[in-house]
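Appendix B. Chain record.
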Amino acid sequence: MKKVDYKPFLFFSIYTIILVFPSVGCFNLFDWDEINFAESSREMIVSNNFFQVMINFEPFHEKPPFYFWLQVISMKIFGVSSFSARLPNAVLCIIFPVILFNIGSRLKNKTFGWIWSLIFIGGLLPNLYFRTGIIDPYFNLFIFISIYFFLQSVSTSKIKNVFLSGLFSGLAILTKGPVGLLIVLLSCSIYSFSEREKISWKKIFIFIFTVIIVSSPWYMIELINKGPWFLIEFIKYQIELFSKPVAGHQQPVFYHFVVVLFGCVPFSLFALRNIFKDSKLDLRFEKMMRICFWTVLILFSIVSTKIVHYSSMAYVPLSFLGSIEIYKIIKGKRFSKRIKLFLFLLSSFISTILSLFIYLLIYQKDIIMIISDDIQLRTLLNLNLLWQGWEWAIPLIIVFASLLWFIKFKFHPLKYLAIYSILIGLSFSLISYFIIPKIEFAIQGTAVAFYEDISKEKKYLTTVGFKSYAPYFYSEVDDLNKVDKLYQKKSDILKKYFSSSSLNDLNRLQKNKFNGHVLSWLIHGDVDRTVYFVSKKSKPILLLQNAKNLELIKDQAGYQFYKRELK
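Structure tokens predicted for this chain:
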């Protein structure tokens, strides 16, 4: 029996416990995605309904439930908080690199396994995402494992590999939707065609059957409970993401190429040569990773809605291709001085930009105000954030880590690669402790504090003129009962203006009109509890300002808070 190597698990466990776990609860969740997902998980607990994904206790058909289930487990154990919302991804900081180590060791040897796992967590964006409450890290892991087992099924006759590939594809669908299966099918189909690998109909059937068995029960339950509208709305949203920018997330076609190049330093630079041609290292898996990388990058470059983490699946194959080059250097290939210089200059550039930004926030606010005349930004810059004055130096740890690695690489390459990854983790931890909480407070701290202050009140609460999920999560909103006047009024509006009994029947334009009627009632109608309204000073809402029965109770940090007392 092959002896199990526990060193990677021990190393990454200590790494995560010291450098990741303590930092994930240092600041509040950010709008939109983090709070959106955390609130959906909280509402599952409040409603005791773990199959229905909701936001503000209304159906949320954009995402399947798997990641929410993980957050629910975390919240059940540790309570509802930013820490428990981010904990599932923090745990992946142990699981993900250990999996990369084991696969890398099987493909080549333990040296390669260590390189791949260490360089992955040493990448800037991968390390950052382990500290967030977004869906993508689990989604990416499931897709990667599915592709790995597909390749195993090609090289062996073991049916279990086909089953495992289908299992993890099904989990990817349950995590973020059909795009998970699309990435797997595109990558595997291109590989099979290019390598002239014939996949038997038996294997195809087992794969499809497993995917359906794993992913379809939840979709079927939703379809039965909600009717065809659920499936229609879900499909419409997926198409909408591809066809037009959602929520203003419009970027140039090369957006994800830039994100991956700069966000995945240093392994993105080591991988540059290998993403275009074979490394001659005799790794069959290499071609699949190259295909997977280009599939993800091209696919999400075509998609109209472009958000930073959409292309995060590309980090895994890219880190593999980068690891190949580092492995070759360890085994004797010359580490070019020009490559060293380029890597050092790029890491220095990224850290300098971060340091300069923080320095300007602390010492040169006037310069930022000259650059931008945004009212909200000017208001935020005038806040006293209690800087210590040395925070600008934290990103320079990246420069030190890079310099140390490049100088000492030839002596103990794995040792100094580990030190590099530790220093990257340390820099993000310090940023999480000393910098992000201040920035988060400046952006939304005043609003979050207000929501928390009224969390125990029986109230109605709404934002006006901007979209935010923070009021739901931090004010701990409850589901409306049939005896609540707002519940009754919503039903009346649906029947009177839309001849409908459900919001599910309304399109996006109709929902906007519906919300307008609800807002008007909250301001002028016969309410049965205190009502709070939140707007941004940069976008004055005349409807609130002119309402004589509303009191402006707070005007702070770019937010305006109105109250309608129950009389």
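Further analysis of this model is presented in Appendix C.
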